[in-house]
Predict the 3D structure of the following.
Amino acid sequence: MAAPCRKVNYQFVKRSLRCFEPRVIPCRWSNTLRNQIVEKHRHSPLSSTRELVKQQDDPSDVLVPREFRFVHPDFLPYPIWNRRDRVREKLEREDMLKRRAVLDIPEFYVGSIMAVSIADKNAPGKQNRFVGICIDRAGHGLNHYFVLRNAIDGQGVEIKYDMYNPLLQKIEVLKMEKRLDPQLYYLRDAPLEYSTFRLDMEPVPISKGAHVPLNAIKVKLNPRPWSRRWERSNLKGVEPLDDYITEKMKKQKQHPQIQKTWEMHDLMLKARSSIDDREVDQIMNEVYKRKEKIQKEKLQKRGQEGKREGKKAQEVRR
Amino acid sequence: MNMFRFPVRNTPRKLKKSFGVGSGPAERIKKLQMLVTALIRNERLEAKESYCLETRGYAEQLIQIAIRNGDRHAETMEKADYWLLEKDLVHKLFKVLVPRYQNYTTAFTDYHFLPKKVPGSGVQMGILELKGNPWPPVVPRQRNQKYLLTNVLISTAKEEYRMEKKISPDLKNGTHDKLNQLDNT
Amino acid sequence: MAVTLIGRLGNLLHKLETLVHRIRVQDSLNRGLPTLGVPNFDLGLDGVNSDLESRLKQQKNSESGSSRSVIDSIFGSILWGVPKSRRTLEKRLTRKFQGKEFKEVTAIKKNIVACLECGTYHEMHTICPKCYGKVREETAAMKAAMGEDFQYNHPRSEVVYLYEDDQEDRAKYKGKYIVEMKKPRPLWFAKNLLTKGHG
């Protein structure tokens, strides 16, 4: 809810007159569909799509595994609650699922070594393949991206790929593993050995139900200057930085404006910058059901194709 | 599904400097701790509008996480310990307020406007109270508005519409309705 | 007081202007440059720098073309922010009386309504002050009746306040913290003990 509404006293018959009041939408939200209004129309007893809505809102009998939201972070809703557009999110989810039906997007985490083939009209074979370690993964909906890093001929190279870019032809995970940090931008200030991966690397097999292995490696950074103030970032996958930091930097880090201890228990800050777990559950539920459906269709298609080929073979034999 | 069951601003208010507490984000949180503690203890808080409406969010969130996680959850206990400066209120939160608000679908607090004092500084005061408190209600008894003229007219109009719907099949399907026409196109 | 302040500022400015002008003139003369644009006003020279005055007169007689001295360029580029005219009484008063404390008194209110219980007037969106005054007093009495427990050791169960006429309901509130109020229940305080809010 964006506009504060004043609760009116018992005095006047405002409730009954409310239906006659013209609903004036302020200029600020004239180009968005406010969720309150959309939900009101969705759940209205006069709507013709009431059955569909009931189906959609029904809590499923299918148990969605807890890891599903970590495997599919692109489906998570936009975290800023007052700037969310749920209709747009729904449309994006549809597009994302359609794309996933065509392209196989595997499960991967920051720290996994991946190979991505992208369509490139100027490259030999019209394809460009890059291998690298995933150092970041962010974005919501169709804007979801991941960054791969590698060192080629002694030069560090980072490429940012939009996950739903139609030019992407193949995403392979060569080595699936996790790291201690959510982002690995500090590899820019580490020796190149930590970022070097062979372009012809063989994929490391991993069994289907296994836990994702954690690579607890501690990277030794180069001496300062760094691209960022890593001493303030609380990095876990990095060796202690005490050798590189001056007394002044340590003191600065302890400054209350840097520490911001008041943000630790700030309930409203957390509420404003995150989406309710129940809503995330609902979305993941929907996505899970749709995904199952798509997989079923895929199998059916393959089965049909197999049948067709069998028929053709029979005909040929005849 | 809306997370907040009451109006919430896009950005937090910067509470002004006052007696005992200064300005800035750290001091603001200190002030809010005092206000939340006072609200939980007295169940009714008379303060400036901005103070009341800021504490509303924090008090409701505190009760919300207490309901969701219970008193065995370490993080929730930490937060209750931080926000409630008097520790007997931590027990009250989990033992009195959580069972009271367990099945609420509405907000746990109510806000009322107090009349402005004239002559005065023109500051708007208000009352923030927890629902279900034992004190006499702020708003006097609600009167039955069923027999007010406008309401009588509206209820008869509703009845007439229902009767017409029963008779006519078009009305039953709702195809005459403009809203449905829009949806179908 | 404002008048004297402005007067003082004006004096200061005038003195600064003359000083600047004097420096300009001196500099121009020293460089042998023309002193065009030097008005014939009194430079306040007190006869001490009569030499300067005479030189100026000499210069004025032989003027040829204008060129800006270094000092001129420095002082000429600074814009002195100064009030152009006196602020009128109307403007001053408007500024003084535009705060919300005055709006409260002067703005016309069309949302005043009488309380159905007691008849006091208040704005439509606010609560009746007289009725709330009664409520406030009663609340204070109820808190006092609980004693020290209220402030220092709040009970861990729902609190029930029983007045003298509510004694029959005692059995209903087993397990709850009961506070005895030593007076009859006020007529305006309805018997909705421990009913839930909206829920």
